[in-house]
Amino acid sequence: MRKDEGERPDEGGRLRRVVRRLASNDEALEADDLRKRSASKGATALNDCQDRRQVTVVGTVRSLTLQPRAGAPALEVELYDGSGTVTLVWLGRRELAGLTPGRQLRVSGRITTSGDRRVIFNPRYEFVLDPA
Length: 132
Fold this sequence. Notes:
This protein is of the alpha+beta class. Helices cover 21% and strands 36% of the residues.
């Protein structure tokens, strides 16, 4: 059906999205949803963050690790936003109340590169309550 014969302009886009979702694997769908959620909360995608800049990122906690640095504890958290990961490091902390894998976080801080990974030291954080 041609557009001038009554087809609505958004039908092709909607069908295309449905077909893409059916053909995608779960990991790709999760990444797409995380990128959209992050953008809707006004955060910057990790793949768009420039080194040594102040950033705000929203993502899901993938893992927590207690890693000693210079004899003091340091809590390391891997945060995934659908476009990439960043390691959040809280120096002198063994835990943060309520922080568990799977939780959504909004963090702000200066992003840098340490070795082959992106890192934010002692970021400001808040839990994101997002109805599923």
